[in-house]
Amino acid sequence: MAGQSLQDTIRVDTARNLYKVARRNFVAQEILEAERERIFDRCWLYLGHASEIPQPGDFLTRVVAGRPIVFSRDKDGALHALLNTCPHRGAQVVRERQGNAKSFQCFYHGWTFAQDGKLRGQPGKESYDADFNRDGDADMLPVPRFEIYRDFAFVSFDRGASSLPEYLAGAAEYLDILADQSEVGMVIVGGTQEYAIRANWKLLTENSIDGYHAATTHATYLDYLKGAAGNLAKVPFSGVGRDLGNGHAVVEYRAPWGRPVAQWIPLWGEDGKREIEGIHARLCERFGKERGDRIALNSRNLLIFPNLIINDVMAVTVRTFYPSAPDMMQVSAWAIAPSEESDWARKYRLFSFLEFLGPGGFATPDDVEALEQCQRGFQNLREAPWNDISKGMGREQPSFDDEIQMRAFWSSWHARINTPADTSGEG
User: Fold this and answer.
1) 232 and 373 both lie in a single domain
2) Domain range spanning residue 70?
3) Which partner for 329 in 21, 201, 324, 361 could form a disulfide, CB atoms 3.0-4.6 Å apart?
4) Domain for residue 318, yes or no?
5) Alpha-carbon distance 149 to 159, whole Å?
6) pLDDT tens digits for range 386-423
């Protein structure tokens, strides 16, 4: 570590309820290299949603922690995650971003593979031994670990990783809350939003579960809500922050915006009110009033460690982000919705997705500016070396605008960063 220990990256004083994070964690190349090895190479990482490849033969390609991957559905409907590297000479096999195909052919030498990665053909096959692929060495390699929870597909490059449900810990409950919004199944809607932020990736992790900044950073949007939400705008923000284990965290709260599942605002009119009331009633019928109200009326910002954010707010956004440098990240985001919702509800859902959560909306430009200003401010780290995330520390039940969520992330981050490289670092 170039003369500095990985241990001295956070400082915790429980007697004074102080929690400090070193600003070098956001700027040092050696920190980023340790993160790639001890976090991104070991944790479960989000790959995609099963709804994105609904038909046999469907596939998409993604880059996860620097690895090109093919996410595919075979002819029998089974899902696969394959390393997008030809076993022959190493070229990427699938060059398209998304499509449907009976097989994948490497353009370099023409080797052909089934949707599950099995080798199906080679030009000049007669020149190879009859038992050439007896052990499957010439098949496309699957990602070391691949599991699915409620149609959310995850991969891990650590063969020794714990099971996905064990890893998710308390976050699984919140994926259930999201999935239960639909009686049929949730679906990714539209394409992918992609953009870059000139800031360290952990700043977006923090910001995404930070209820403290909303009143100042997003003041313009909150003023706009006063007109759109009618009497609901008088409902104060209120809720809790929770540490969900394994570095996962959530803020769950009431907010004055409309939710297609299922909180009405006057902007949506009387027809919209009847539809929203119907959705709410069906949720209560399926799950009971307490859980039905929770699904319908509560907003949630969920972190699944290290870099999956699900904002279940006025719309639902699934977002991942990866570092390309200590001060640069690449962001990908998708909208998700109940597959059976009406055209009316879908219209307002996507409007809200773009209006607030999209890269040109009310929230994201504000957040990007805040994160980039933090990154600039870290240039003074030699004289001002520590961030503070002590808010709410020591409280029996932290509020949604306290900082228990960030402390959950950083405590797990610190433990993993200091796990020796020859162990899996799970837990």
Assistant:
1) yes
2) 45-157
3) 201
4) yes
5) 18
6) 999 999 999 999 999 999 999 999 999 999 999 876 54
